[in-house]
Amino acid sequence: QVQLVESGGGLVQAGGSLRLSCAASGRTFSSYAVGWFRQAPGKDRTFVAGISRSGGSTIYADPVKGRFTISRDNAKNTVYLQMNSLKPEDTAVYYCAARTSSSNSDAYYSKAYEYAYWGQGTQVTVSS
After folding, report:
1. How far apart are CA 107 and CA 69, in angstroms?
2. Is 89 exposed, middle or buried (0-12, 13-18, 19+ CB in 10 A)?
3. pLDDT digits (tens, 9 = 90+) for 49-59
4. Separation CA 59–CA 32 (nearest Å)
5. Shortest CA distance to 51 belongs to which of 76, 73, 84, 20?
6. What are the helix (H) ranges across the chain?
7. Which sign does the torsion angle of CA 104, 22, 61, 43 carry?
């Protein structure tokens, strides 16, 4: 089992940058694929980015391609989401999620139901 804690959210002007962190407990973090999701007020939770447990494979939702970068440091049990060129429509609560991925170190996942563990979320607000 793993516990996830997000940090790094805040208020930023359009065009600015933020880096979110997802810190995980446990000594087997390298066994988990991780994803970032977001939920804007009144909207469904949507996929943002995912990374394999090895860090060798990543996937992005179309709205963030070229602007966001997901990465991980397994030695620090942390996954990052670097967000550049932020837009007001990026405003949401951002969640990280994790699931075990033992058979394929390069597998990544983009559906919320594929993830077993979730953090509490961090608010990102982009002003125009």
Report:
1. 17
2. exposed
3. 999 999 999 99
4. 15
5. 73
6. none
7. positive
